[in-house]
Amino acid sequence: TAGSPPSCSTASTRVLTPPVPLTLPPPFPPPFLPPHSPPQPSPATEQLPATPVQPTPDPPTSTNNGWDDGDEEEDDEDPRKDVLKEFELTVTLSKSWSGSFGFTITRSKLDGCYYIQDILDNPAKADGRLRPGDRLIMVNGHNVTNVTDEVAMRILRYSSKRLHMVLGRAVQNLLPPPPPDSLQDIIIYKTPPGQMGIKLTGGIGSKWQGIYVQEVVPNSPASEEGSIQPNDRIVYISGKCTLGMTLEDAVKACENASRKVKLKAMRDDQPVTPKGKWN
Fold first, then answer.
1. Which of 16, 88, 138, 199 has its CA 20 to 30 A from that of 113?
2. Of 52, 44, 42, which Cα lies nearest the Cα of 16?
3. Phi, psi at 247, each rounded to 5°
4. What is the DSSP letter of 97?
5. Does the structure show a pLDDT above 60 at 261?
6. Any idea what DSSP says for residue 172?
């Protein structure tokens, strides 16, 4: 189990890039990266605001009774210097008859890298090797770490029918997430203003590569329910797996949920059992 997660504000700037399906129909297929025009909806979860700041070693005291508007200074140090070991894997996919590779990507504001976000369809689903949270390193011989959107779009626009990728998978994500049926729902009811009293940290691009609880606000709905504790890993939010989510994705998933929010969590690699009166 990872140590105490670094602190992270859950709202400052907007995320750079919303994910769009990696569908590249001939002869000049649109890239799976969005242009700099306003974002359009896609089959995958849209990138939403509330960009986290750079994780820092010592979490500050927070008076935030929810998710948003925690302004903190960013750390100028290299965001990947503390990232734990990655294992590289190579995946080659052949474009489907519809011109799709069957997955979406997103870009992390923390390290500027592109990550697999969702596996939607074949050939990615049938191939089975890609996993949300995998970091793109090379695409058809081109290094795509920290390239501009324009360069990435040019590389992908002229991709052939075969997509050859080198990816990095963090050691924290070597094992797939537990199936949702193996974890019980922890039900938390929001206050009328929409707060739950949980502050999240982590996400892709951070050294934690997962969504963790940084703080449970005293006397909040989460505190009164009693199941969630700091350092718990949130695995599912309202039925959606958090693997491959940015921190802002997770925050927005909670904000966009109904008043009754269902979480599934792990603690020390064991399922968190709900104990609140609403579960």
1. 199
2. 52
3. -60, -40
4. T
5. yes
6. G
Write the burial class of residue 156 (CB in 10 Å: 0-12 exposed, 13-18 middle, 19+ buried): buried
Cβ neighbours for 149, distance < 8 A, ≥ 6 positions apart: 16, 17, 33, 34, 35, 36, 107
> How far is Cα of residue 205 from the mean position of the Cα atoms in its chain?
8
63 CB neighbour count, 10 Å cutoff = 7
d(C-alpha 200, C-alpha 25), whole Å: 38
Radius of gyration of the CA atoms of the chain, in A? 19
- pLDDT attached to residue 97: 86
Q: For the segment 170-228, what is each residue's pLDDT rounded down to a tens digit?
A: 888 888 889 999 999 999 999 998 899 999 999 998 888 899 999 999 999 999 999 99
Tokens representing 176 are 């797939």
Contact between 253 and 238 (Cβ < 8 Å): yes
